[in-house]
Amino acid sequence: MFQIRTAVLLPALLLVASLGCQQMPRGSDTGRIDTSRTTQAERNDPRILPVGLMEFSDQVAQQFAQDLADLPEIGMGGVRSTVILGDINNKTQIVSSDEFEMARSRIRNSLLSSKYVRGKVSWVENRARLASLAAREGVGTVNNPAGPNSYDPRQTYTVNMDVYRIGRGPVNQYYVEAMLVSFATNEIIFSNRYEIKQIKGG
């Protein structure tokens, strides 16, 4: 008798469990989720939301591409300008600079996808990273690794970022600015900012 009841109940329990899984709401914060969606766990974190960083990087890339047509300094004389990823001045105290580096790399990736931008701008890796790779892989010698020629400061620029936070209790306001700066004149050729205020748990 015991065995018969078990045989009947087990399939029924499995069916109930299966239905429970199927009826799990789509908005639950388990498993893989859309990168444009903010989860409840993120809302409870005082740091700038990942979706905010994505919006900022998209905004800067789009504006940068549009403004290139109005910047005579870029691609002057038919020679592609050189752009180097520069410094990140992170004053938030609670957000890792790695997160802003990701946003900056995302900006570069978006711009590299534009044929128009590639025609006017050449993006290069920083020398320290190249020298380390060259030494590790035997490109040139350890003491004198092969590297690119010196860049013309008149056609070389860097993308720097400043990031600030104003905190008031559970509320944090962030200010993120990306700047294209000339090595020849220290002039800020292009600047775009992103501001966001968020409340913990909001």
Helix content: 25-40%
Compute the number of strand runs: 5
* Secondary structure category: alpha/beta
- The averaged pLDDT comes out at 79
Distance between the termini: 56 Å
User: What is the CA-atom radius of gyration, in angstroms?
Assistant: 25 Å
Helix-strand string: HHHEHHEHEEE
Largest sheet, strands/sense/barrel: 5 strands, mixed
Count every helix, treating DSSP H or I runs of 4 or more residues as helices: 6
- The CATH topology comes to Rossmann fold
Please tell me the CATH architecture by its name: 3-Layer(aba) Sandwich
Shape: globular
Strands in their spatial order, largest beta sheet: 2-1-3-4-5
- Beta-strand content estimate: 25-35%
Count of discrete structural domains = 1
Low-pLDDT segments: 1-25
How would you summarize the topology of this molecule?
Blueprint: H1 2-22, H2 40-43, H3 50-67, E1 81-90, H4 97-112, H5 115-120, E2 121-124, H6 127-137, E3 156-168, E4 171-182, E5 188-199
Parallel strand pairs: 1-2, 1-3
Antiparallel strand pairs: 3-4, 4-5
Helix pairs in contact: 3-4
